[in-house]
Design brief:
Blueprint lengths: L4 H9 L17 E7 L3 H14 L4 E4 L15 E2 L9 H12 L1 H5 L10 E5 L2 H17 L4 E4 H7 L14 E5 L3 E2 L2 H14 L3 E3 L4 E7 L2 E7 L2 E10 L5 H7 L7 E12 L7 E4 L4 E5 L4 E12 L7 H14 L8 E11 L6 E4 L5 E5 L9 H14 L13 H4 L17
Parallel strand pairs: 1-2, 1-11, 2-8, 4-13, 11-18
Antiparallel strand pairs: 3-7, 4-6, 5-6, 9-10, 10-11, 12-15, 12-16, 13-14, 14-15, 17-18
Helix pairs in contact: 2-7, 2-10, 3-10
Length: 417
C-alpha cells in the first residue's frame, strides 16, 4: 500500500476501510542470513538498507518489547549536522542528506521539519569556538550562519537577553537543522523493511548468543533458538549487556537522559534552541507541546526514568533562558538509556567474533544519526567493509588510543559527553 493524496481522499470518502496493517507479525523462522538485535530506529534502518541497498531479504529484527519502544521514542527529536571534528562531521552531514529525502524514500510522513537550530553563546571565547565550528560545517558542505545579539533577537525575541549570569552574545544558526516525529521514523523504517521481506519479530528477547569456534551461529531467545550467519547488536543502552552474552566487555557506560513535554500551546517557538550554559534545548512539536531536555543524570542506570534533582535543574535552565514558559504545565517526562563512550563518539564495527557486529555508543547523537547509522551499518554487514563516512568509528580506537573523536574536548570520561 502506497500513501498518496488520492489514497487519503478515497479512504476518507469510503469510511477508511481500505487501510492495511503497516507490517506483518510473523513467527520467527529457524534460520536467517542476518539477525538484527534491536527494533529501534538504528536496528530498523539497518534492516531497511540491507534489503533496499544490498538486496538481502532473509533478515529478521528481534525486539524484546514493541518496535520503537526504546530510545527512538524517548528523545527530543532534534535533527542536525553541526559537528566539528573529522569523522563526525562527514557522517552527520551524510545523515542530514538522508533525512532530507527520507519521506520520499520511505513513502511515509516522518514529519521532518527544517525549522533551523540555533546554538546560543555567552562569552567571547564561546563566540570564537562557534565561529570555528561554523566554518568547519561550511567546509563540509553544510550551512552555518554566525549571528550577533541583534540577529538572535530578530529570530528569538522571547529570550531573556539580559540575564546577569549568562548574557546572550549571539548564536550559531544552522538553518537545515530541525526536528522529526520520533515514532513516525520507527514506523516508516519498519514498514519499509517489512515491505522488502524483512521479518519484524516483537516480544522476542535475546537471552544468549551462540558461538562456535570463534564464529557466531545464532541466538537464543524467549521464542526459541534462531540460527544466523551474521548477527548485529543495535540495542543502544543495553549494548553492554548483549555484548557480555558473547563474552565481550564494551567500553561504554549506560546513563539516563531525561526529556519533557508540556501541554499543547499556540505556536510560539519556531526553531530548535540550545542554551549551552544551562545545557538546555527546546522546540515546539506539531501538536503544540514544548519538548525540552537537559543533561544526563550523572549516574549509571538501566531504568527508563530519571531523578528529581535533574528535573529541577532542567526547569531552572528553561526559566533562566525564557521565563515566558513558566506557566506552561508539564504533562510528562521520560528517560532514555544512553550508551556513552569514552570519547563521546559512536562505534560501528566488526567484533573479534566472526559474523558478530556492533552499532552502539551514540551518546546524545542517536536520533539524528538514525538514517546514516543504518545505512553505514548495513554496508558493513553486507560487504565487511566500512562505509567511508563511518570509517572512524572503530572499536579498536579505545584499545590503542589512536583515532579518538573527542567532539567536545572533555576527555575520556563517559558521563562528560
Amino acid at each position: 500500500m502506497r500513501f498518496s493524496g488520492l489514497k487519503i481522499l478515497k479512504e476518507g470518502l469510503t469510511g477508511n476501510k481500505g487501510w492495511t496493517e503497516h507490517w506483518r507479525n510473523p513467527e520467527p523462522k529457524k534460520e536467517y542470513d542476518i539477525l538484527i538485535i534491536g527494533g529501534g530506529g538504528h536496528g530498523l534502518s539497518t534492516a531497511y538498507y540491507l534489503a533496499k541497498n544490498h538486496g538481502i531479504k532473509n533478515i529478521a529484527v528481534l525486539e524484546k518489547g514493541y518496535l520503537g519502544g526504546g530510545n527512538v521514542g524517548r528523545n527530543t527529536t532534534i535533527v542536525r549536522a553541526n559537528y566539528f571534528l573529522p569523522g563526525n562531521s562527514e557522517f552527520y552531514s551524510h545523515s542530514l542528506k538522508l533525512w532530507e529525502g527520507l519521506e520520499q524514500d520511505l513513502n511515509y510522513n516522518v514529519m521532518h521539519s527544517k525549522r533551523g537550530l540555533i546554538n546560543l553563546f555567552h562569552s567571547d571565547g564561546q563566540r570564537d569556538a562557534f565561529a570555528r565550528r561554523g566554518n568547519a560545517m561550511i567546509n563540509q558542505g553544510d550551512d552555518a550562519i554566525l549571528l550577533d545579539k541583534d540577529g538572535v533577537r530578530d529570530l528569538l525575541p522571547y529570550l531573556d537577553f539580559e540575564q546577569t549570569r549568562f548574557p546572550i552574545y549571539g548564536g550559531l544558526y544552522h538553518p537545515r537543522g530541525g526536528s522529526a516525529r520520533h515514532d513516525a521514523v520507527a514506523w516508516g523504517y519498519a514498514r519499509g523493511a517489512d515491505t522488502r521481506g524483512v521479518d519484524l519479530i516483537q516480544n522476542c528477547e535475546v537471552t544468549g548468543i551462540d558461538i562456535k569456534q570463534g564464529r557466531v551461529t545464532g541466538v537464543q531467545t524467549t521464542r526459541g533458538a534462531i540460527n544466523a550467519k551474521k548477527v548485529g547488536i543495535v540495542v543502544a543502552g543495553r549494548s553492554g549487556q548483549l555484548a557480555a552474552m558473547a563474552g565481550m566487555n564494551l567500553p561504554i557506560e549506560s546513563h539516563i537522559l531525561q526529556a519533557f513535554v508540556t501541554e499543547g500551546l499556540k505556536p510560539c517557538i519556531d526553531h530548535v534552541v540550545s542554551f549551552g550554559m544551562g545545557h538546555f534545548y527546546i522546540s515546539q512539536s506539531d501538536k503544540g507541546g514544548l519538548v525540552f531536555g537537559g543533561d544526563l543524570d550523572f549516574y549509571t542506570s538501566y531504568a527508563q526514568r530519571g531523578n528529581l534533582p535533574m528535573k529541577e535543574h532542567v526547569m531552572e535552565a528553561g526559566m533562566t533562558l525564557m521565563p515566558m514558559i513558566g506557566k506552561a504545565r508539564v504533562l510528562r517526562s521520560w528517560g532514555g538509556i544512553m550508551d556513552m563512550t569514552p570519547d563521546g563518539s559512536p562505534i560501528i564495527d566488526k567484533t573479534s567474533i566472526d559474523g558478530l557486529y556492533i552499532d552502539c555508543g551514540w551518546c546524545y547523537g542517536g536520533f539524528k544519526a538514525v538514517p546514516a547509522s543504518g545505512y553505514c551499518f548495513a554496508h558493513l554487514m553486507a560487504t565487511d567493509r566500512h562505509h567511508e563516512v563511518a570509517s572512524g568509528f572503530r572499536l579498536s580506537r579505545f584499545k590503542t588510543g589512536y583515532g579518538l573523536i573527542d567532539e567536545e574536548g572533555t576527555g575520556s570520561q563517559h558521563n562528560l559527553h
